[in-house]
Amino acid sequence: MTAALDTERDRSRSRVSSLFPVVWMCHRNLTRFTRLPAILVPLIVMPVFFLVVFTSSFDGITRLDGYPTENLINWVVAFALLQGAMFSGVGTAGTVANDIENGFMDRLLVSPVRRGAIIVAPLTYTAIRALIPLTLVTVLAFAMNADVPGGILGIVLAYTGGIGGALVIGCFGLGVVLRTGDVRAMTIVQMTSFLVIFPSIGQVPIALLDGWMEQVARVNPATNLLRMTRQGYLGDVTWADTWPGLLVIACGIAVFGPWARAELIRRTR
Predict the structure, then answer these.
(1) Low-confidence ranges of the chain (pLDDT < 70)
(2) What pLDDT score does 138 carry?
(3) For residue 74, which of 188, 241, 232 has the smallest C-alpha distance?
(4) What was the pLDDT predicted at 5?
(5) CB contact burial 226-244 (16+ within 10 A = b; e otherwise)
(6) Could you tell me if 196 and 79 are in contact, meaning their C-beta atoms sit under 8 angstroms apart?
(7) DSSP string spanning the chain?
(8) Which of 29, 64, 175, 264 is 20 to 30 A removed from 237 (C-alpha atoms)?
(9) Cβ-Cβ contacts under 8 Å for 117 (sequence gap 6 or more)
(10) pLDDT per residue over 146-169, tens digit each?
């Protein structure tokens, strides 16, 4: 009986000791975030820019036969949400790249911190950071007369798609910067996020695309993620439009997360 209690206490201490580095590193990143408000610029300016410019410039596109909504903001908002959230993942990878260059990562690697915590902490920070553009774009979209026929579940799935996309890009970015150890590798992460989201159904449905753009959009994983994120703004939420987006998030994290951890372990050898 005593041995069982001692084992349970050891497990509790292990869970606390694993959680503390994650909380501490998240707090450190959030503190730096508040001290450098310029970090907010790409998170806010770019998604707001696309939301306002696309809605005001291409409003006539809704009159085309087959366009799924008469209110363009309901279509564009998902693109702006995902773009802002994915910038959160890019920025988090940049934070880790700076930590590598200034030597902080080396101090972490020689400390008694679990390697998993070094990966989980920036990803947790990514999810928290993604809430800023997601909330800002959502509020602005409502101010521009967007509506959500899918109700609260539609909003929940929009946030799920945004945070999930941010985590996938965050995992990929961590793998890149841990592999290269160079902040200049952030160019690869940023360009990848653009190249994934633009040739999809960000602006136009697949039915109105043709040529190579249609073929790329059909196989682009961002298409399923956008479809899940957008569905509540276009109509009722359905499982058929939800599970492919969840699968994209799960597969992205399952592929790039272990890669990032493997690159972290490689740096300790």
Answers:
(1) 1-21, 33, 36-39
(2) 96
(3) 232
(4) 37
(5) bbbbbbbbbbebeeebbee
(6) no
(7) -HHHHHHHHHHHHHHHHHHHHHHHHHHHHHHHHHH-GGGHHHHHHHHHHHHHHHHHHSGGGGGSTT-S-S-HHHHHHHHHHHHHHHHHHHHHHHHHHHHHHTTHHHHHHTTT--HHHHHHHHHHHHHHHHHHHHHHHHHHHHHTT---TTHHHHHHHHHHHHHHHHHHHHHHHHHHHHHH--GGGHHHHHHHHHHHHSSSSSSS-GGG--HHHHHHHHH-HHHHHHHHHHHHHHS---HHHHHHHHHHHHHHHHHHHHHHHHHHHHHT-
(8) 64
(9) 18, 21, 22, 25
(10) 999 999 999 999 999 999 999 999
In Å, what is the CA distance from 79 to each residue of 73, 118, 121, 200?
10, 30, 27, 10
d(CA 179, CA 173): 10
**37: its two tokens:** 């408000």
Q: What pTM value is reported for the model?
A: 0.89
Whole-number pLDDT of residue 19: 66
- Yes or no: say if 165 and 85 are a contact pair by the CB < 8 Å rule: yes
The pLDDT of residue 112: 74
Phi, psi of 198 (to 5 degrees): -75, -45
